[in-house]
Amino acid sequence: MPGYETWSFHSEKETRVETKGEADDDSTGVDRMDEMLEALRPEFGLNSEDPPTKEVEEFFKLLQVSEEPLHEHTKVSLLAFVTRLLAIKSKYFFSNKCFNDLVQLIGDVLPQPHKLPNDMYQCKRMTKALGMGYEKIDMCPDGCILFCDDHVDEKKCLNCGKGIYV
User: Fold this and answer.
1) Structure pTM?
2) What is the pLDDT of residues 90-130, one digit of tens each?
3) 77 with 68: CB under 8 angstroms?
4) DSSP secondary structure string, 56-95?
5) What is the CA angle 120-122-128, rounded to 5?
6) Which domain of life is it from (predicted)?
7) What one-character DSSP code corresponds to residue 14?
8) What CA–CA distance (Å, rounded) separates 162 from 145?
9) Measured between alpha carbons, how far is 61 from 125 in angstroms, rounded to an integer?
10) How far apart are CA 113 and CA 134, in angstroms?
11) Is the peptide bond before 113 cis (omega within 30 degrees of 0)?
12) Among residues of the chain, what percentage have pLDDT more than 70?
């Protein structure tokens, strides 16, 4: 089915059939940030004649950042770089200090002048308008249960007996 997204983290096998003229976005190196931001447009009611709300102003700032290159020798946008960096932080469980040190290192090797934020705080502030908040939920070290809802006060896994903070 065209446009179907394979859920590889749910044990679904990749069985993609490419239709005529369709290019795989991952292989072309094209970031689709502009498509995602355009999809948000109706959410903010941007067609109204009313003065812009705070959310709309943040959205337009985000649009501006999405088109702004990280530095003059790249086509990678500042927003695309920061969101990918935050995704890596989340995927590999970097501490904020580790993230800040990594951003400092990248900033030191990028050609000047560059627009890379200095730290985690500035990166999160930049992406706040995307509305991608999160809630940290503890889980059993073996992945048996999540310590939320009815189990939020539990200190040990009800299945294997291991503690939350092993």
Assistant:
1) 0.49
2) 888 889 999 999 999 998 988 888 888 889 998 888 777 67
3) yes
4) HHHHHHHHHHHHSBSBTT---BHHHHHHHHHHHHHHTT--
5) 100
6) Eukaryota
7) P
8) 11
9) 12
10) 32
11) yes
12) 69
Which strand (E) or helix (H) includes residue 127?
helix 120-127
Q: Identity (one letter) of the amino acid at 128?
A: K
* Contact criterion met (CB below 8 Å) for 166 and 149: no
129 token code pair:
């308008």
Q: What pLDDT score was predicted for residue 25?
A: 44
> Comparing C-alpha atoms, which of 36, 20, 42 is closest to residue 77?
36
Which range scores top for mean pLDDT: 6-10, 99-103, 119-123, 150-154?
A: 99-103
Handedness of CA 29, 35, 74, 97 (dihedral sign): negative
44 and 79 in contact (C-beta within 8 Å)? Answer: no
Given a cut of 50, is residue 20 above it in pLDDT?
Answer: no
Q: Which residue shows structure tokens 């200190």? A: 155
